[in-house]
């Protein structure tokens, strides 16, 4: 039986053979489990999250996902105290022979399941948008050969209230005063805004906290006078508002990034 590895609230198993049974040594709450593969000859496969017993025998299954290519459906259910609950069925989003990507996020009272979340990603923000007092949290992993990616907070008129752009392909050389040798850092993180079709002045102070193929949590908190930006729980930067902070209604993500989750809190 294998073991799951937790990294920045992301659960990473790697490339595996099936069937797989794996134990998670940490609480799964607020974490992500990701399954990536390719549909071959099989008509169906299942993903079960177990609890209580280490050998999986007779344990409750808080989440059962059955991907049924022969029916064209994904079936969701749970198994509690020896009985199955009521099935929920959704149309299968995968095509025969295509790669698939399933991601599961555990909340206090529910699971959220994402299928084939694409990049570039663009979406409106429900309700009143990202008003002051709210935070956007993005969970992601830069690609192995990532050059750059960007996250844009949009106004309804298309202006970009915040352009957040980590760049791995811009190298910075700094001098070590003792040995007089140079070392290369991981590039810049650009912050800017686009108003009426014109870019403003770039802000690029601070070291790039992102690493290629390493999971991260990014929180952008909208406060009355500025965005406060945190990476992996550490404060990274602030960006003073250049537009009305009450008018942010959209999110756009582009570049060499794999998204594992998005939250508005």
TrEMBL record:
MF terms (GO), sorted A to Z? carbohydrate binding; galactoside binding
Output the superkingdom of the source species.
Eukaryota
SMART domains per the UniProt record, alphabetical: Gal-bind_lectin (SM00908), GLECT (SM00276)
Q: Which InterPro entries match?
A: ConA-like_dom_sf, Galectin-like, Galectin_CRD
**Presence of keyword Cytoplasm:** no
Read off the Gene3D superfamilies from this record.
2.60.120.200
Entry's Pfam families? Gal-bind_lectin
Protein name per its UniProtKB record: Galectin
Organism expressing this protein natively:
Ascaris lumbricoides
């Amino acid at each position: 039986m294998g073991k799951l590895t937790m990294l920045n609230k992301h659960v990473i198993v790697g490339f595996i053979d099936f069937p797989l049974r794996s134990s998670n040594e940490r609480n799964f709450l607020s974490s992500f489990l990701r399954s990536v593969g390719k549909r071959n000859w099989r008509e169906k496969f299942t993903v079960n999250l177990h609890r209580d017993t280490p050998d999986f025998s007779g344990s409750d299954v808080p989440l059962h996902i059955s991907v049924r290519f022969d029916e064209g459906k994904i079936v969701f259910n749970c198994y509690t105290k020896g009985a199955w609950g009521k099935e929920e069925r959704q149309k299968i989003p995968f095509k025969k022979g295509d790669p698939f990507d399933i991601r599961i996020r555990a909340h206090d009272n529910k699971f959220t399941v994402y299928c084939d979340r694409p990049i570039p990603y663009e979406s409106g923000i429900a309700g009143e948008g990202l008003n002051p007092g709210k935070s956007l949290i993005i969970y992601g992993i830069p690609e192995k050969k990532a050059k750059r990616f960007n996250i844009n907070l949009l106004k309804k008129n298309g202006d970009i209230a915040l352009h957040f752009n980590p760049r791995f392909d811009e190298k910075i050389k700094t001098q070590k005063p003792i040995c007089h040798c140079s070392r290369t850092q991981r590039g810049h993180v650009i912050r800017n805004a686009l108003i009426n079709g014109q870019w403003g002045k770039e802000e690029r102070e601070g070291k790039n906290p992102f690493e290629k193929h390493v999971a991260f949590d990014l929180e952008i908190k909208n406060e009355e006078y500025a965005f406060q930006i945190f990476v992996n729980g550490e404060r990274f930067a602030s960006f003073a508002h250049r537009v009305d902070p009450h008018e942010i209604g959209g999110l756009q993500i582009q570049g060499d990034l794999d998204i594992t989750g998005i939250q508005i809190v």
